[in-house]
Amino acid sequence: MKAPIGLHIQGSVSIAGSPLIKTLDMDIKAGQWSCLLGPSGVGKSTLLYLIAGLAAHVDFEGSTMADDQLPLAGRISYMAQTDLLMPWLSILDNTVIGSRLRKETPNTAKAENLLERLGLGEQMHRTPSQLSGGQRQRAALARTLMEEREIVLLDEPFSALDAGTRAQMQELSSQWLAGRTVLHVTHDPAEAARLGEQIWLLDREGLREIETPSAAIARPVDDPETLACQGQLLRLLREEGS
Question: What per-residue confidence (pLDDT) applies to 119?
Answer without folding.
Answer: 93
